[in-house]
Amino acid sequence: MTNQKALVIIPTYNEKDNIEGIIDRVFHLEKEFDILVVDDNSPDKTAVIVQKLIDEKYPKRLFLLNRPVKEGLGKAYIDGFKWALQHHYDYIFEMDADFSHPPHKLVDLLTVLENNKADVSVGSRYLKGRINVVNWDLKRILLSYFASIYVRMITGMPVKDTTAGFVGYKKDVLQSFNFDKIEFVGYAFQIEMKYKAWKKGFKIKEIPIIFTDRIKGKSKMHGGIISEAIWGVLKMRFSKNI
Ligand SMILES: Nc1nc2c(ncn2[C@@H]2O[C@H](COP(=O)(O)OP(=O)(O)O)[C@@H](O)[C@H]2O)c(=O)[nH]1
Ligand SMILES: [Mg+2]
Fold it and tell me: Looking at residue 118, what is its pLDDT?
């Protein structure tokens, strides 16, 4: 398995307080990952910080995709996936900028794919009857947990943490997707990616992580994302477009 390349895609909107720290952490892991930051023209100038890091510190391993307007996580990831395939990455990861996803677990997510234990690896908060979330208020824990049960009931998909945003894909999974047919942008986007991968026959494996809510910066979650997920899951279940 020589010359296999791994890429972590980090979507950002106003992450100036987190971005440098998270990039440094990924570049100090024991396995080699390149990073693509996909920024939606953050008013706090996150992209300027990233460009400076490219110019001065990581010219070969750090990349930046500037998108002109904020269009949500899903659209940013789709542009990132297309970029990753064009640049011949073998393993492609999704990770938030805000340290909610422990960066060292990227190594485990990659190992699962390298050993052919799965085509999609998911950093999961809800395994073995536990809810491994730190610093979320009860409302948000319950919302996320019951959302995951709801999605499993409707779709039958054997994944506990269906809204997880800490995910690794082998490149053939992403190559099999028609990104023009991906409909959703928020949590529903994460559900849709897993659902379609599962429907196409790819193997999904979850590994446990502890999710810690962000310390710096603000969440971009809002009500629209939740209703998109509730209705979107039903729509997806009865749609023929896989
Ligand atoms: N490019 C881009 N990134 C986004 C957008 N919305 C959220 N993000 C990023 O997606 C990640 C998760 O968002 P966050 O606000 O932490 O959501 P939460 O963890 O569900 O509260 C963070 O890295 C955000 O900066 C967006 O519209 N465009
Ligand atoms: Mg977050």
Answer: 98
Q: Rounded CA gap, 19 and 10, in Å? A: 9
Q: Which atom of ligand 1 is nearest to the CA of 97?
A: 23
Ligand 1 centroid – CA 3 distance (Å): 31
- Give Dmax over CA atoms of the chain in angstroms: 50
Which numbered atom of ligand 1 lies nearest the CA of 213? 19
Residue 226 in any domain: the answer is yes
**In the prediction, which pLDDT does 75 show?**
96
For the record, the structure tokens of 22 come out as 């998270």
Is the Cβ–Cβ distance between 232 and 186 less than 8 Å?
A: no
Average per-residue pLDDT for the chain: 94
Give me the CATH number covering residue 110: 3.90.550.10
70 lines ligand 1 (CB under 6 A): yes
Give the pLDDT band (50/70/90) at residue 204.
Answer: very high
Whole-model pTM over 0.90: yes
Q: Amino acid letter at 135?
A: N
Give me ligand 2 centre to Cα 240, in Å: 32
Count of domains observed in the chain: 1
Quick one: pLDDT band at residue 221, thresholds 50, 70, 90? confident
Q: Please give the single-letter amino acid code of residue 53.
A: L
Q: H helices within 87-123, ranges in order? A: 105-114
Give the residue-averaged pLDDT of 86-99: 98
Structure tokens belonging to residue 53 = 């890091």
